[in-house]
Amino acid sequence: MQTPKREFWNNAERERLPDAFRMTKQKGTDTIVAVCEVWAVELGWDLCVQIDGHGLHRSALCRSGREMLDRAKEWRLMMTEKGWA
Q1: Does residue 24 fall inside a structural domain?
Q2: Which DSSP state fits 4?
Q3: Of 8, 37, 51, 52, which residue is 20 to 30 A from 28 by alpha carbon distance?
Q4: Tens digits of per-residue pLDDT, 19-42?
Q5: pTM attached to this predicted model
Q6: Measured distance CA(49)–CA(38) in Å, rounded
């Protein structure tokens, strides 16, 4: 089975787009930051949530712009329910 790629893709490398969201949470006396990075890749959009820049917390490859926006909204809501603002 072949996975269809973007019809027009001239970049050999993935391209960083504006973040989907940034959230903060208090942990003791520290404030930690979560960032949902958005990357344009040949197969669609790659969403990556990193917390305080330490490793990958969660990621997903989205095949459409609508899927990417919906997934980012879903993750933001889940994090809000866990005390992130």
Answers
A1: yes
A2: P
A3: 37
A4: 999 999 998 999 999 999 999 988
A5: 0.83
A6: 9
Contact 82, 58 (CB under 8 A): no
Phi, psi for 11 (deg, rounded to 5): -90, 135
Token pair for residue 24?
């903060």
Among residues 28, 39, 22, 25, the alpha carbon closest in space to that of 75 is found at 22
CB-based contact 31:52 (threshold 8 Å): no
Outline where 1-85 has alpha helix (H). Answer: 65-81
Q: Average pLDDT, stretch 4-21?
A: 76
Q: Which amino acid is at 76?
A: R
Which range marks the domain in which residue 75 is found?
A: 15-81
- Quote the tokens at residue 57: 């917390």
Q: How many of the other CB atoms lie within 10 Å of CB of 32?
A: 14
Provide the token pair at 49: 């949530």
> Could you give the CA distance from residue 7 to residue 22 in angstroms, rounded to a whole number?
31
